[in-house]
Amino acid sequence: MWFFVIGDLWIFACYFIGYSYDRAHDASAFLDGQRLLSPGMGVLNTAILLTSSLFVALCAQATRAGDITIASRFIALGGTCGAAFLVTKVIEWHAEVSAGFPPSTYPFFTYYFTLTGLHFLHVLLGLLILALGWRELRKSTKPRAEFVEASATYWHMVDSLWIAIFAALYLMR
Amino acid sequence: MTAYLRSSLTVVWFLLVAVTFVSWWVGTGGGRGGSDVSVSITIAVVAIALLKTRFVFSHFMEVRTGPSWLRASCNGWLAGVALILLAFYEYRLQAEHFR
Question: Does the domain at residues A2-18+38-171 carry the CATH identifier 3.90.1150.10?
Fold first, then answer.
């Protein structure tokens, strides 16, 4: 899992290279696009993912301690927060598309939809992996702690990527 | 569950959420409004983001107790992203400005 996670982190770093290059080329046009975002929604997205990461980290601790029932509750709470993130993201995208922010008008939105869209897919995959971890905890008489830890590792990567994306898209000037 | 929620991880989570609000305040000009290109704001918000990511790596991902190659890989990624979002971006910004 670690090799996959580190590889994925570097793939996103490559997207940041393209973003930085194009943004520096036309900084004021990118700022015009960025002003149309709601930073409050970005903060909400971040708080939700950080909360989900806390629950997933506590799940790993509980699994190692043998508190399997508690661990399965924590992983379910983490997954619920992940699903809430997807809902808030869809609401945010819907508001932006309805307001008419096409990528052709604001170059910023090409990167915005690409980066947040790719991250959205990672959250979906992360939820699937968390569901497998949850099933391991619920169904197995002797759940494999390393399996649950691997699910948690992937989920924390999804959270880490969002923290960088939030700063790059919503805040940097 | 309450016993687990009383762990140091919850303190880390609280700090991460609090710092997110601080970065929001900094990124929107510290209540002064204005939304021009700003090197200092960019440095501040990216530095805060990378610090938060480091905390997620070390405390939630438990990288701090992992092998040295893992710590080096995660620190290397943080340094790489800092280089891209700060040094590379600011260099390109200056190059475009004075072209």
Answer: no
